[in-house]
Amino acid sequence: MTSPLLTVDDLVVEYRPRGFRRAAFRALDGVSIAVGRGRTLGLVGESGSGKTTLGRAVLGLAPVTEGRVMFDGEDISHATRSERRRLSRRLQVVFQDPYTSLNPSMMIEDILSEPLRASMSSSDSRRRVNDLLERVGLPSDAGSRLPREFSGGQRQRVAIARALALSPDLIVCDEPVSALDLSTQARILDLFLSIQQETGVSYLFVSHDLDVVRHMSHEVAVMNRGVIVEQGEAGKVTETPEHPYTQRLLYSSPLPDPDRQAERRRHLRRFQDAG
Q: 257: Cβ–Cβ under 8 A, 6 or more apart, which residues?
């Protein structure tokens, strides 16, 4: 059996405020997950559940207090800056807001070629940028434009192209469609799926939306208050969940069918009354 690409074991993340009398805040409390090669683990939960903190810990942006993060057999829990730069060739991120994650004063070609300069000539870099723009469905003249000249969906395509520039093995997707309208969301999600099918890239896909996670993921982990409350195969977790918290997420998510939506609301009221 092939070993997972990413393994997180008993991870604890604590933030210690200044002052001796204030207790540390434990954002993650013994979290364990695994992301297979060429697969997507959907990480779902409400705001404040700890899912974004877990993604940040994988990226080295949140402090690991206990436990470990293993990437392709290497312990990266406390990787140095130089080690993180080396890892960036294989581990990338797409953030929620595509505008603030792009330098507004740089042309798109410069944004996409920046990570390529250390390993490619100028001509090879330009060809790679053109290939990336084509791959994410942007026009050929996009490279000579600034981020503000694009819609939110187009800017997210730029962010995806930048994440793909070095052909990574894993991309952490932190709420990558939550700032987009529904029709744009669908197109971006389909783009993620198409890229995975063609390249074999793995995703740690963070979202508060159970329907989005169901659409994207092979496996799902549900987080609440810094712990994993349920995880398993995506269809089972998102359609017949066992944990009450996951059930509440399911019954509170909207449906286009009014009869099914009314049934969900009845289920949700029963859970709220029971709680």
A: none
**Do residues 90 and 6 make contact, with C-beta atoms less than 8 angstroms apart?**
no
Rg, C-alpha atoms of the chain: 20
Instruction: Select from 24, 22, 15 the least CA-distant residue to 56.
Output: 15
Report the alpha-carbon distance of residue 152 to residue 221 in Å, rounded. Answer: 28
Cα atoms in the Cβ-side hemisphere of radius 13 Å centred on 265: 8
Q: What pTM was computed for the model?
A: 0.90
**Nearest residue to 150 via CA among 123, 111, 118:** 111
86 neighbors 76 (Cβ within 8 angstroms): no
Question: pLDDT of 115-146, one tens digit each?
Answer: 888 778 888 888 999 999 999 999 889 999 99
The closest of 207, 159, 152 to 179, measured between CA atoms, is 152
